[in-house]
Structure formats: structure tokens, C-alpha cells
Amino acid sequence: KMSERYASEARRYFYVTPTSYLELLRSFKALLEAKRTAVHLLQDRYANGIEKLLDTEGQVTVMQEELVALQPQLKTASAETEQLMKTIEVETLEADKVKAVVAKEEAAANIEAGKVKVIEADCKADL
């Protein structure tokens, strides 16, 4: 049909010679080889991807088992941490109270120190 169309449009005939037929076969062979190579590359990529997925699945399974095994230790550590936080909170409150008392005593000591310096200055002035 294509040769008839070519003949009607271009008013020329198309002949298939042995050389052109051999060139067609070479082109087909090259195209076939290129497609086979592409398919082989894709097949390798898919195989590698599946292998990676299976490896990852195994690692995830191991990690899940470790997580389940560590769950009681995690709960114990969490409870200890919570208890420690409560203890720290109580000690912080006590430290704040002591700090307030020390601040008052420091203020009183500073006042006394000021009075002593005044008396000391008077005594030195008297000498």
C-alpha cells in the first residue's frame, strides 16, 4: 500500500533491491539488539530493587524484634526518669528556699559590712 501511495504521489516506483533489503535487516537487527539491551538493563534494575526491598524488610523485622525486646527496659527507664524529675523538682524548691534565706542573710551581712566600714572609717579618722 505504501509503495502504491508513493507511486501515485511521486509518480515513481519503489523497488526493493537485495541491498536495500539487507540494509533493512541490519537496521532491524541493530534495533532488536538495542531493545534487548534496554530490557536487560531494566530487568537488572528490577532484580536489584527487589533484592534491596527484601534486605530492607529483613532489617526492619530485626529492628522490630529489638524494639519489642527493649520495650520493658524503655518503660523502666521512663519510670526512673519521671521519678528523678520529681526528685529534682522537690530539691529545686528546697534550693530556692535556701537561696532566699541566703539572699536575706547576704543583704543583712552587706548592711552590717557597710556599718562596720563606717565605724572603721570613723576610727581611722580619730587616730
Account of the 3D structure:
This protein is an all-alpha fold. It has helices spanning 2-10, 18-126. The longest helix is centred in the middle third of the chain and has 109 residues, at 18-126. The radius of gyration is 47 Å and the shape is elongated.
Layout of secondary structure:
Layout: H1 2-10, H2 18-126
Q: How many whole angstroms does the radius of gyration measure?
A: 47 Å
Structural class: mainly alpha
Unreliable runs: none
Biggest beta sheet attributes: none
Query: Quaternary arrangement of the chains shown?
Result: single chain
Shape: elongated
The number of E-state strands comes to 0
Share of helix, binned: over 70%
Order of helices and strands: HH
Mean pLDDT: 93
Annotation field: number of helices: 2
Q: What's the N-to-C terminus distance? A: 136 Å
* Strand fraction: under 5%
Keywords, separated by commas or semicolons:
127 residues; mainly alpha
